[in-house]
Amino acid sequence: MTRGRSGRIQGYILGVLKYAALILGALVMAAPFLWMISTSLAPDSVIISYQLIPTDVTLANYVKAWNFSRSFDESVSLGTFFWNSLIVSVLITGPALIIDSLAGYVLARRRVPGKNLLFYLALGTMMVPFYVIAIPLYLVVRRLGWLDSYQGMIVPFLASGFGIFMFKQFFQTIPQDLEDAARVDGCSAFRTYMSIMLPLAKPVTATMAIFKAMWSWNLFFWPLLIINNIRLKTLPLALTMFRGLNVTQWGTLCAGMTLATLPIVIVYLSMQNLFQKGIMIGSIKG
Question: What is the pTM of this model?
Fold first, then answer.
């Protein structure tokens, strides 16, 4: 009896310690985000403040951040950069999900000569840093006349080895009987993919949608290389304008970063359940 009670007490103490560690970790992770919001609501200053709760609250930094780019071009505001980032994110994420899922389906379920080699080549692209191919890719884009254009930012990223891997791993877990039944009903390979496979892949699709949306929304280095027109710059590029050569306007910069972060936070919160399922499914070995 005493041993059972001591075991329960020990389990309770371990549970408290575990949750305390998790809460501490969550606070450490959330602290930079809270500081960013706090600084964005405080009066603008070139001196960094480490207060998590501002003494004076103002929205002036958000107004200034929204209109800051008008000093370079009267027709450009922060909304222009939002729109550019939205176009790039949507036109990368949507087509990329279709291309990656199609490739994953073919590699997982269809008889294609050399499909294992193609799969390993797709995985190999994940091992090559982007900085290695940046210059050759820039030369190709320049040759095509795509500098200072949306297609220059979008087309090079319409497929990824990671996306193909995730979809292939998922499609390999689906019973073959479903495809056999669809074939008996007269479905073509593409109809089977559209009507059966893709609807079943919602968790993986949501996972990849979040990954690709986050990555394309935060795209910085590639637009920095090919975009010189301020009207085509994306949000990450626009945020660099708040940092001067000698002075950084921290309140305005944090206001811009807060506005830039909100869309991705909303996307993740709206799809987090499917995201977690997709991560688990994608880790299954086919």
Answer: 0.81
